[in-house]
Write a structure and sequence with these properties.
Elements (H helix, E strand, L loop, with lengths): L13 H10 L2 E8 L5 E7 L10 H10 L30 E7 L4 H14 L3 E5 L5 H9 L5 E4 L5 H11 L4 E7 L11 E5 L7 E3 H8 L28 E5 L4 H11 L13 E3 L5 H6 L4 E6 L8 E2 L1 E4 L2 E3 L3 H5 L8 E6 L9 H10 L2 H10 L7 H10 L10
Parallel strand pairs: 3-4, 3-5, 8-13, 9-10, 9-11
Antiparallel strand pairs: 1-2, 5-15, 6-15, 7-11, 7-12, 13-14
Helix pairs in contact: 3-11, 4-5
Protein name: PstS family phosphate ABC transporter substrate-binding protein
Organism: Rhodanobacter terrae
Keywords: Signal
Length: 397
């Protein structure tokens, strides 16, 4: 029973959707004519392979040398042509040193940035080495042992609180790259999915907040049945069974920030959700439960479920490769450079120039060349550059 209209796929995206369907093993399950508007296309992505958590030996190896890179994506986005070309502020005269650390999925990308920057500024000496681990890098930055902690997720609330207690202000987190699309362990985009029998095709962020949160910072009240989010007919009385991830978890924190948090206020999960300690069982739970809904990184959607579009009323975006690559999908992820910058203070010129380089066309070309993560679009890069804007009126970000 169809109770919510299908999301529209703009005409210009149909050819792209066809390519994605064949290359990414998407299955076209139906083509229907809506009562109003053009023909719609419904896509189901085939289940991802089953993966297991890292073993202690794999984790140790990742800290020493970085995690082995997955097979690069076959499709690659074009680089945003409006990204600015990097123009050194100091010619070759800049001198100094920088110390860096990163998560275990980032050493290759960070080394590419370092190599490109050192060609422009050969007298800036950069040290970067193991251990490669996000929480460790953040702690080293907090203690003044490194200048940049590249972390492939949002910082833990406890890490931010510890840093603020030590310094009197939070760390500055600057987006420097998009995440991946469906790469296991490499910051894949997050999808919400329902059982294949469920008629729901899309949900707004407000509806998700009604389903997931006790705080309801987006308004509305708790949604306990599918009728509470607009489903009609027999399905309206079905209870909503939520399969979520127990805090703290990188996926959980991301969904909390993107869905439950509003205007700097931190949202809170409902207590009656089905919480798993890890992301691995979530898709299986929803596949076995006709009334289920859950979320996971796209690489963990390893059971036959239906991914749904997410957005605001009237504008819902499906988690296709093209939508994630262009950052129009609202649950696309970001990689951050975390630095210690006191609000209103000047930034170390070498540090500032390095981050400007990373956010430039040359820096994002390095992301594209690695073919694992997705380069920033200019609408993401521009506010990131504002975060590191020089204090001198003679310089421009």
């Amino acid at each position: 029973m169809k109770s919510i209209s299908k999301p529209r796929i703009p005409c210009g995206h149909r050819a792209c959707a066809s390519i994605i369907a064949s290359i990414l093993a998407c299955v076209v399950t139906s083509v229907v004519q809506a009562s109003t508007g053009p023909t719609q296309v419904e896509l189901l992505v085939s289940p991802a392979p089953k993966y297991a958590p890292q073993t202690p030996a794999q984790s140790d190896a990742g800290e020493r040398t970085g995690r082995p890179l997955p097979t690069p994506e076959i499709l690659q986005p074009t680089l945003d042509p409006t990204l600015p070309t990097f123009k050194p502020h100091y010619g070759h005269t800049l001198k100094g040193s920088l110390r860096m650390g990163s998560s275990d999925v980032l050493p290759g990308l960070v080394r590419s940035w370092i190599a490109g920057f050192e060609r422009l500024y050969p007298d800036v000496h950069i040290s970067f080495g193991p251990p490669y681990e996000g929480t460790h890098a953040e702690a080293e930055m907090d203690h003044g042992k490194i200048d940049i902690a590249f972390v492939s997720r949002e910082l833990k609330p406890t890490d931010i609180a510890t840093f603020a207690a030590d310094h009197g202000y939070p760390p500055l987190s600057v987006p420097v790259s998009g995440g991946s699309y469906r790469q296991f362990g490499f910051l894949d985009a997050v999808g919400f999915f329902v059982n294949q029998a469920n008629p729901v095709e899309h949900l707004s962020l407000t509806q998700l907040d009604q389903i997931l949160s006790s705080s309801h910072l987006r308004g509305g009240s708790t949604a306990k049945t599918w009728g509470d989010v607009g489903v009609t007919g027999d399905w309206a009385t079905h209870p909503i069974h939520v399969y979520a991830i127990k805090p703290w978890n990188g996926f959980e924190e991301f969904v909390r920030q993107r869905v439950l948090d509003v205007n700097g206020q931190r949202g809170h999960w409902r207590k009656d959700l089905h919480f798993d300690h890890l992301v691995f069982p979530v898709a299986d739970g929803v596949a076995a439960d006709p009334d289920g809904i859950g979320y996971a990184g796209l690489a963990f959607v390893d059971a036959p479920v239906k991914l749904i579009s997410i957005g605001t009323e009237g504008q819902f975006v499906a988690p296709t490769y093209s939508n994630v690559a262009t950052a129009s999908y609202p649950l696309s992820r970001l990689i951050y450079a975390n630095v210690n910058r006191k609000p209103g203070s000047a930034m170390n010129p070498a540090l500032q120039e390095f981050l400007r380089f990373v956010l430039s066309r040359q820096g994002q070309q390095a992301v594209l060349s690695e073919a694992i993560f997705l380069p920033l679009r200019e609408f993401q890069s521009n506010p990131a550059r504002s975060l590191i804007a020089p204090t001198s009126p003679g310089l421009h970000p």
